[in-house]
Amino acid sequence: MELNADFNARVVVHSEQLAWTPSPMAGVDRRMLDRIGDEVARATSIVRYAPGSHFSAHTHTGGEEFIVLDGVFQDEHGDFPEGTYVRNPPTTSHHRREPDRRWRDVEQRRLAATARWGIASIRCRRRRRKSLDEDRSPCPCQGTRDLMSVLIVGGGLSGLTLADMLEREGRDYQLVEARARFGGRIKTEHCGEGAFDMGPAWFWPGQPRIAALIKDHRLAAFEQYARGDLLYEGPDGRVERGRGFASMQGSLRLEGGLEKLTSRLAGGLSSQRIHLGKAVRALQKTEEGITAALQSGDVLEAKQVVLALPPRIAATLHFDPPLPETMRNAMRDIPTWMAGHAKAIAIYDTPFWRDARLSGDATSRHGPMVEIHDASPAMGGPYALFGFLGVPPEGRKDVPRLRQHIVAQLVRLFGDAAAAPRQLILKDWAFDPHTATPLDHAPLYAHPSYRLPAALQGIWHGRLLFAGTEAAPQFGGYLEGALEAAENALHSLKT
Ligand SMILES: Cc1cc2nc3c(=O)[nH]c(=O)nc-3n(C[C@H](O)[C@H](O)[C@H](O)COP(=O)(O)OP(=O)(O)OC[C@H]3O[C@@H](n4cnc5c(N)ncnc54)[C@H](O)[C@@H]3O)c2cc1C
Predict the structure, then answer these.
(1) Could you give the CA distance from residue 415 to residue 225 in angstroms, rounded to a whole number?
(2) Residue 335 and residue 96: Cα distance in Å, rounded?
(3) Looking at residue 250, which CATH number applies to its domain?
(4) Are residues 330 and 450 in the same domain?
(5) Reported pTM
(6) pLDDT tens-digit profile, the chain (495 residues)
(7) Same domain membership, residue 176 and residue 230
(8) Which of 174, 338, 466 to mutate to test the pocket of ligand 1 (most atoms within 8 A of CB)?
(9) Could you tell me the distance, in angstroms and rounded to a whole number, from the CA of residue 479 to the centre of ligand 1?
(10) What's the gap in Å between 336 CA and the centre of ligand 1?
(11) Cβ of 262: how many Cβ atoms within 10 Å?
């Protein structure tokens, strides 16, 4: 919402002519004078409290100012009769004791309030003002609800699954995702009728949760294409047919790409509970729970927070009080599975390698791709080959050159027909700040043995928890692990 939002334009409003708009807190109404944003907003309002209404404790991260117009405003700091002017500087908090009649907020700057987030308290943030006039801006410190129960940070497979489980149990939660899309490491690109996974592509028999989830959502799996001969490229670039092994034979893929799964999950959640483009920047322990400050300037408060993201990414957040170095190191010591990798997908109109009785599987000691597989859809085209790049992240920065080398390698392996892909898509996860940190640029030679270490359990009286595949003891790193970790987080949440 944008209401009288141009602060260079003169505005004259008679408040008596404005309707009272209910706030998310019962008995608390406001007349909106100006506002930028919905419930989470910068706003000036007149706020009316019905007898018996109240708001719970909340922090004004950016400060607030108000004048009591009528009655007595009461909070834990005292009683403020009509005519009182109160300025609460940034980061102070208060809660309403006994409401009387009505009071009015003025100059409320960047109020990050409730309903949009469905959160408990009001968050007011005030910018430095250049002049008094400019100061006539908003922060409606109006009513609030109880603290939200669970804030999930991260809308990858794990965070979405936890949200889904909470939603099915009718529990209170909000989910914030830094990117403009859900799915995290699951990312599917589309070309014509084809869907191509730029992150994970496979799951395996013996992984019960992902199989059940796919079945629940009535999606279909199919087997990795592996019919035909394999290729091997030696260090000198010489290609041998029939050497190597079909490492991914028997692996399963999802028709339409794995993003189908995360979009189905997200689509089943209440839209007012899930928020894209909302990166958490800092977490602060409070008496009642945890306050999360977002890059957007919004502030959310919850009784419990679940970090459904790689621990190394979690270690980049600001914690207040600061976490002991042992905890931070424990987070940094957990490698993010596949975060240092890059994938290239070459899309073609015809499956010329299949026509030549090649499976599309190739291993190479020459590069730049070290492992190549067929990435075509279950049925029909367009068809594709994909490869993991073996060049370390630092050597992948010259993308145009890299693309040339990728195509040249495909021609060496599969012949001239590979020279002109309809599309060549690259995704370098190592430089994606929501997945990888510089620590992930070091190569991993084996699948780490994942499990949340003791140092990362029971943080802030058990209010700060981890989900995310790296927290899963049995299937850590895999899609199945993301589901396992969500399940474990659900069991650890206090009701
Ligand atoms: C190239 C590649 C290939 C892979 N292949 C396979 C495979 O074939 N099979 C398999 O099982 N697994 C594979 N994996 C691993 C698989 O992708 C992961 O196990 C799984 O996707 C992890 O899900 P997650 O929800 O735990 O984490 P993520 O998907 O990483 O989700 C974390 C989410 O948190 C968000 N976030 C980060 N910081 C913040 C913040 N500050 N505030 C709010 N949100 C934030 C991120 O944007 C992200 O959406 C592969 C991974 C990669 C990169």
Answers:
(1) 19
(2) 45
(3) 3.90.660.10
(4) yes
(5) 0.77
(6) 778 877 777 888 887 778 778 776 666 778 888 887 666 667 788 887 766 666 655 555 556 777 878 777 777 777 777 788 888 766 566 665 443 333 333 323 333 332 222 222 223 333 322 222 222 233 333 334 468 999 999 999 999 999 999 999 999 999 999 999 999 999 999 999 999 999 999 999 999 999 999 999 999 999 999 999 999 999 999 999 998 777 898 999 999 999 999 999 999 999 999 999 999 999 999 999 999 999 999 999 999 999 999 999 999 999 999 999 999 999 999 999 999 999 999 999 999 999 999 999 999 999 999 999 999 999 999 999 999 999 999 999 999 999 999 999 999 999 999 999 999 999 999 999 999 999 999 988 899 999 999 999 999 999 999 999 999 999 999 999 999 999 999 999 988
(7) no
(8) 338
(9) 8
(10) 8
(11) 23
In a domain, 140, yes or no: yes
Whether 27 and 156 map to the same domain: the answer is no
State the total domains in the chain: 3
CA distances from 320 to 26, 106, 281, 443 (A): 32, 30, 11, 32
Beta bridge partners of 435: none
Q: Which domain holds residue 86?
A: 2-146
Q: Tell me how far apart the alpha carbons of residues 441 and 83 are, in angstroms, rounded to a whole number.
A: 60
Looking at the structure, tell me whether residues 29 and 91 fall in a common domain: yes
In the block, which residue shows the tokens 């209404």? 53
Locate the ligand 1 atom nearest the alpha carbon of residue 155 and give its number: 49
Q: How far is the CA of 186 from the centre of ligand 1 (A)?
A: 6
> Are residues 12 and 54 both part of a single domain?
yes
